[in-house]
Amino acid sequence: MSDGTLPFVDCKKKGRERMFADRARIFIKSGKGGDGHVSFRRELYVPNGGPDGGDGGRGGDIIFEVDKGLNTLADFRHIHKYVAESGEEGGKRRCHGADGADLVIKVPEGTVVYEEASGKVITDMSGENQREVILKGGRGGSGNMHYATSTMQVPKYAQPGQPAKELWVRLELKVIADVGLVGFPNVGKSTLLSRVTNARPKIANYHFTTLNPNLGVVDLEGTGGFVIADIPGLIEGASEGVGLGHEFLRHIERTKVLIHVVDAASVEGRDPAEDIRKINAELLAYDPALLKLPQVIAANKIDAIYMEEDGEDILSRLRRTFEPEGIAVYGISAVSGQGVKELLYHVNELLLQTDRKPVIFEKEFDMDSLHNDVALPYEVTREEDGGFRVEGPRIEKMLGYTNLDSEKGFEFFQRFLKETGILRDLEEAGVQEGDTVRMYGLEFDYYK
Residue 27, SS3? Predict the structure, then answer.
C-alpha cells in the first residue's frame, strides 16, 4: 500500500478483518516562524515616528510522547499528516506575534522512529526516553524595530521567520518484554500466556489468530516477576517477509529469553524438533544476534502425548537432541498447568543471568542536517608523520552523538565516512592501506 501500512488479513472465515498495526508511515512538519513586521509609529504630532514593527512568533515543535495506554500504532492508519502551527507575524507598536502551538504525537512505548529515505533511527521511545522534540519549529523573524541605526533611521525591511522542517518518518513498534514466546501457529502460546499472566488473548484454532503481540506480567512467588510476550505465529520464510514474517520478527529484538513452544502431541502432524530448527533458522536469517539469546523449550500438550514407534517418547527425544546444546526441555500442559511452574522458575533463573535493561536502539540520523543548504565544513590534512587528520564542525558534531563502542554505532560511523565523501577526500589526499587517520582523539588504520 502506498501509505506504508499493512493490508488487511483475512482470519480464516471468522467474518471479520483485523489490522496488524505495528508499523506506520507518516509525514511530520514543524511550524514556520512568523515573519518580522515592518511598521512605523503613527501618533498625533509625531509625523516621523521611528520603526515599531514587532517580531514574529516561534513555530510549533513536533514532539513524540509515550502514552502507556497505547499498545498499537492503529491510530496512524487513517491520519498520515501531522503539522504543527506556524508562528504569527509580528505586529505594529512592537507587538510580538503569537507562538505556534506544539503538536504532541502520542505513541506506544517501544516505538522506534526512522527517517524514511535513509532508514536511519531518529529516536527510540523506550526506557527513560518518554518525550522528545523531533522537529524544532522555526524561529520568528525580527521586526524592523531592531534595524534602526544612526545612518538608517527608517528601515523598511524585517527578517522573515525561519522555514519549517518536514520529514517522512516510519514508525515501528517493537514490543518491550523480557521473554518472548515463539513457535508455529496453534501450538498453544496464547493459552500458555493466559495461564501464567492476567493477559486475555483471543484464542481460536486457526492460523494467525494472534495478529498483535500480547503482553502479560508473570507474578512468580519469590521473584520480581517478568514481562512475557506472545509473539505471533511464525512460518517458514518469515525472515524473507513471507506472510507477516518481518512484522512479527521485529518484536523479538528486545527480548532477553526465548521460549520455544512446540506441540508435543503433534496434533497437526508436525515434528516438534523440526519446528524448533525451522524457527531458529528464521531467527538466524533475520538477525544472527537473536540466536545468542538463552532459549528453553516448552513441550506443550503432554497430557495428549503418544509413544513413538521406536519406543522413545517425544520428551526424551527433544532432551536428547537439544539439552547437549544447553537448551533445557520442559514438558507442560498449558491447559491443566502441569509443569508450567517449573518452566517459569527456570526462565527466571535465565533472566537473572542477563542484563534486564531494555534494548534501546541508538540514534543514527543527524536532525541538524535537515535543510542545511551547505554541509558543515571539514578538512583533511596530511601530518608530518605520514598520517592524516580529519577535523571540522561536521566531524565534531557526528562524534558527539555516535557511540563508537557499540556495533551499530561503529557501522553508522563507517557509513558516515562514505556518505559524506570523507573517504573519497582521504583517497584524493593520498591515503594508503595501513595509514593512520585521526579525528579528535580517535585514531584508526585505513583499510578498504
Answer: strand
Q: How many residues belong to the chain?
A: 448
What SS3 class is residue 191? Answer: helix
Please state, in angstroms and rounded to a whole number, the distance separating the CA atoms of residues 149 and 50: 11
* Residues 340/345/349/352 CA torsion (nearest 10 deg): 110
State pLDDT tens for residues 393-410: 777 777 766 667 766 677
Overall pTM > 0.70: no
**DSSP β-ladder status, 388-391 and 379-382:** antiparallel
**Cα gap 122→135, rounded to integer Å:** 11
Above 90 in pLDDT, residue 75?
A: no
Model confidence at 307, in pLDDT bands (50, 70, 90)?
low
Roughly how many angstroms between the first and final C-alpha of the chain, as a whole number?
40
The CA distance from 319 to 299, in Å, is 10
Look up residue 101 and give its amino acid.
A
Query: CA 309, 315, 317, 318: dihedral to nearest 10 degrees?
Result: 140
> Directed axis angle between helix 189-196 and helix 340-352, to 10°?
80
In this structure, what C-alpha cell is assigned to residue 118?
535513509
User: Per-residue pLDDT averaged across 95-102, rounded?
Assistant: 94
CB 19: neighbour CB atoms within 10 A? 16
Contact between residue 9 and residue 245 where contact means Cβ atoms under 8 Å apart? no
Residue 248 has pLDDT above 70, yes or no: no
Over range 378-385, report the average pLDDT.
Answer: 86
pLDDT of residue 301: 86
pLDDT of residue 347: 92
Write out the DSSP string of 59-125: PPPEEEEE-TT--SSGGGTT--EEEPPPPPPP-STTPPPPPPPPEEEEE-TTEEEEETTT--EEEEE
CA distance 311 to 319: 15
Number of helices (H) and strands (E) in the chain: give both, helices first. Answer: 8, 20
pLDDT for res 210 = 40
Please, what is the angle between helix 314-322 and helix 272-286, to 10°?
40
Residue 362's pLDDT band (boundaries 50, 70, 90)? confident
Q: For 189-198, b where at least 16 C-beta lie within 10 A, e where not — what string?
A: bbbbbbbbbe
Percent of the chain topping pLDDT 70:
80
The Cα–Cα gap between 134 and 121 comes to 12
